[in-house]
């Protein structure tokens, strides 16, 4: 058992990010077994869940003529336009059926504001609107976090960078992550995490 000051943060292991889902990450379901095995080692376990309204502005379908995975400028900066995914209450937004959810102390839903996307577990994509996770972890006495889940180069990576910026000791276990790798996004994300002092362990 790890110290009580260590937390496991499981990012977005949802049906839409697994094979057959609307925004499937290759072998995304391969993270489920290693994550399940890790959960009992942590006194604090948090699951995050992408939770978008149907009319979310990051969906390509909300921009006539726009192709999925194209880029636009939002008020807060560049934004990938995604296929419609993880719509609130839909089967795609549900956790993968084999993921253990009972060990979770907290399930944090993000991306519910239609006008702004939310990759990080700590902040919306404007980098200023908090999700509340920092306060929860601090109140639990957490100093170190290990991040796992989907996808390495977006929600996991952004969460890791924010956690490091907030002063947590951050580890990403790549054996329990998988990436989208959009136009080299995985290499960029790994480089950014290393540069921020994030410890990368394991291998996908």
Structural class: alpha/beta
Compressed to H and E, one letter per element, the order equals EHEEEEHEHEHE
Strands of the widest sheet, in order across it, are: 5-2-1-6-7-8
| Main beta sheet | 6 strands, parallel
What characteristic shape results from the CA principal axes?
globular
Number of helices: 4
Strand content: 15-25%
Mean pLDDT: 96
- In quaternary terms, these chains amount to single chain
Relative helix content: 10-25%
Number of β-strand runs: 8
Low-confidence stretches: none
Compute the separation of the termini in Å. Answer: 24 Å
Pick out its properties:
204 residues, alpha/beta, 19% helix, two-stranded antiparallel ribbon, 4 helices, 6-stranded parallel β-sheet
Could you explain how this protein is built, in words?
With 204 residues, the chain is of the alpha/beta class. 19% of the residues lie in helices and 23% in strands. It has helices at residues 32-38, 133-139, 152-165, 185-195, and strands spanning 6-11, 44-50, 71-74, 77-80, 106-110, 144-150, 169-178, 199-201. The protein has a 6-stranded parallel β-sheet with strand order 5-2-1-6-7-8, with helices on both faces. Helix 1 (32-38) links the parallel strand 1 and strand 2. Helix 3 packs parallel to helix 4 (185-195). It is globular and about 50 Å long. It starts with 5 loop residues before the first strand and ends with a strand. The mean pLDDT is 96.
């Amino acid at each position: 058992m790890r110290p009580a000051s260590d937390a496991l943060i499981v990012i977005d292991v949802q049906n839409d990010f697994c094979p057959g889902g609307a925004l499937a990450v290759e072998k995304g379901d391969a993270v489920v077994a290693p994550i399940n095995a890790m959960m009992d080692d942590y006194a604090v376990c948090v699951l995050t869940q992408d939770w978008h309204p149907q009319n979310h502005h990051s969906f390509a379908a909300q921009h006539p003529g726009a192709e999925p995975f194209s880029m636009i400028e939002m008020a807060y900066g560049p934004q990938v336009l995604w296929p419609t995914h993880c719509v609130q209450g839909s089967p795609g937004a549900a956790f993968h059926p084999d993921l253990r959810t009972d060990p979770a102390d907290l399930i944090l839903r993000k991306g519910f504001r239609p006008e702004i996307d939310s990759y990080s577990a700590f902040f919306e994509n404007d980098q200023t609107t908090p999700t509340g996770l920092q306060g929860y972890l601090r109140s639990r006495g957490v100093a170190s976090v290990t991040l796992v889940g989907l996808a390495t180069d977006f929600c996991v990576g952004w969460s890791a960078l924010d956690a490091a910026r907030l002063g947590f000791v951050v580890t990403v276990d790549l054996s329990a992550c998988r990436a989208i790798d959009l136009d080299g996004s995985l290499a960029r994300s790994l480089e950014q995490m290393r540069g921020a002092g994030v410890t990368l362990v394991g291998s996908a």
